[in-house]
Amino acid sequence: MPSMHERIREDLLLKERALWTAMTSAAPAPAVQKLCNPEVNLMFPQMPILTLEDQSTFEKALEPPFHRFDGYQLDEVRVIIIDLMAGVVTYKVRAMRGKREYLATGSSTWSQGSDGEWLMAHHQETLI
Asked: How many independent structural domains does the chain possess?
C-alpha cells in the first residue's frame, strides 16, 4: 500500500494534469474554475492577475485561443508536500500548436478541503 505522501503526490499530479487538460481545451473557463479554491490567484504571462471575484473577467481571460495547444508536456515535475492538506507542484511545460511552441515554468499550490477535494489556491507561469 502506498504511503500517505505517495498518495498525496499522485493526487496532486493528477490535479495538475487535469488543470493543463482544462486550460488547453476549447472552453477552459468552466473546467478550470471547478479546480479552483474560491480565493484563487492565477498569474499567466502578460496578463493581469485573475481571480474568481469577477466571473465575466475570468471567463473572458480564458476564452480561446488562451492556451489552445495541440499538446503539452510537463518536465522536471516536483511535488512539494507542505503538510497532509497542502502541496505545491512545480515543473517546466512545453506546449505546441502547429509550429508554435510555448515554454514556461509553472507552479501550482493546492489545498485539501474538509471534504477531501484538492483545490488550487495559486497558479503561476513564467515564460522561458
From this structure: 1
